[in-house]
Give the backbone structure.
Amino acid sequence: MSKLKVLSKVIKIMLLLLLSVSSKAQNLPGSDFLISGEGHIGYIISHRNNMGNLIKGHIYGGELNYIFRTDGCKTWQQIHKYPELGVCFLHLYLANPQQLGNMEALYPYANFRLNKLKRKASLNLRLGAGVAYLTKAFDRIENHQNAAIGSHLNGFVNLRLNTNVMLSQAWRLDAGVGLTHASNAAMSTPNLGLNIVTVNLGLAYAFGNKNCTFRIDSIPKMERKWQPSIIGVFGIKELENPGGSKYLAYGLQANLYKTLNYKNKLGAGIEMAYNNATKKVWEDDSVYTSTSADIVQGGVKICYAFNMNKLSFPLDFGVYLYKKQAYNGMFFHRIGFRYLVTKHLIANVTLLTHWGKADYFEWGLGYQF
């Protein structure tokens, strides 16, 4: 069976599911949402030399989405042009059943409109993150050539540029191109991760308020102010030797942001970290016995954050000013999520990287002054 025939069957199954849900949900009281089914075809990016043997051909699959359309009842929805919020279940066949198997992902996302609101065709940027399950992971005996994925359960990030075209009041055509990344941030090695590019095409059906009227209010000007915060984090990582011990890492970050508007803030910060994995590398590579002071790393950084109500997406670029070991180089970067639980309490989930190489997930809590 050709790949196009399989992809056609995937799309048909997704559409049958969509039509089935459509026929059963039309009479639900108070329902106001969309269900979409989409097919995917694409390829895995060979971002390392030892990835080539894992890529056997084009990948394909499908996804099912539950989508909630915001109407502007909250100010942040109007500021972001009434984004769609959704939950996606994604299935991808990775064209290498022996070494990679399939990917199953479940993740929430936000779909931000980039063009004017009143047009029937919208151009959007979709951001999502969640978890992915890979049916094949590295195994010393049965799957030793899989240098990409060291665990079945992985973190998942999706970035997609998409368009939605209204075919009628209820039916919508969805199409786009996206980049997907899945890895476990070195909690289990090997961990090169999977970077996947796909194009997608499908249909969505709207339930409830098909006209989707939007509330429009006068939005007050954002007060530009400084926002200092301090965040404590910890993480777990494994070194390059698969199946070895796992090591704890700790960090303390002090940030100072200046709010530019409702969506963006810019700032700087200082931070210190202590990584037991670095201590192990030092001990293995040197006759010198390291002390705690030798393992401590301190640096400064430039910070940016994209805000969506209480949720923010930080992006850091920093340089170590105090670092006695050469492991991982002198520059560090950070991406992730922060959520303002209360007026002052911050929940933090970020990924520390060094020029695109994941170091570890940072889990923590902080205080915003």
